[in-house]
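Bumping with the actual sequence this time:
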Amino acid sequence: MTDEDDSLRAKRVYADATGATTAFVGTAAGVVRVSVSDDIVGEFSLEYAAEVTDLAVADGSLAVGTPDDVFVRSGETFEATGFGPASAVGHDRSGRLIAAGAGRLARYETEWTTLAELDAVRAISSDMVAAASGIHRHDGTHVGLDDARDVSTAGRPLAATAAGLYYLANGWMRALEGDVSVVASDGATRHAAAGATCYIGSDDGTWRETELPVAEPIADIAHGGGVYAVTTDGTVLANVGDGWRHRSLGVPDVTALAVEPPV
C-alpha cells in the first residue's frame, strides 16, 4: 500500500493531530512543509517560494540558505539576514546560526561575524563543516579527508566523501567504500546514502544496506522521532520502527531536508 492510497486517511489524521513531526524539504522552487504522524506522510504545502540550497532547524528556528541570502523563519514570515549567497547553513553547539558561501564561513547573532575564509562548503554540523577540501573546524582548520560531501557530529563524527564513509576514531577510519553523499546521526541511530542505496550503522561500527520502497537517489536524511529521508525527485520517506512509508510531493530538484521533533 502506498501513501497515495492513504491520502484521505492522512488528512483526517492531521485535522486533529498532536505530536506530529514537521519536515521541511528544500527544493529549487522553495521550502515544502510536510506533516508526518508516526510513519504516515500526510499533508504538505509550499512554505516559502525561493530556490533553496540548504536548510537547518534548531530550537524551533528554521534557517533557509538560498543563492541570494540566508533567511530565518519568524512566525509566519521569513526574514533576510544580510549574509548573501549561501551554499550551506547549520547551527553550532550553542544553537547559533552558521552559514557558508562566497568563500567565507560566518556566525549570526545580531549580525554576521566571519569565522574563516573557506571555499565550497557543502554541509555544516555543529563545530565541523564539509567542504571540497575536506572536513574543517569553524576557524578553517583542516581536520582531514578530501572532497567531503556531508558531515554529522552527533555522537561519533561521521563524514561522507567521494571516497567513502568515514568515522572519527584515531584519525578518520573508512567504514564504507564508494561515493557517499549523505550522512546523518542523532547520536544513537546512524544512516548514510550513496545514490539510491541507504545504509544503517550499528553500535559495533558495521554498516548494512537497508531496503527502501523507492529506487530514487537520496538527497538528504534526518532524524527526529524516527528517521526521515527525501529523494532528489521529491519522495519523502519515514520510518519510526515499523518499516518505511513514502509519498511523492511532486517537487523535483530537492536539495535538503530538516525535521522538527514532535511537540
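The C-alpha cells above came from a reply further down the thread. Confidence is low (pLDDT under 50) at residues 1-18.
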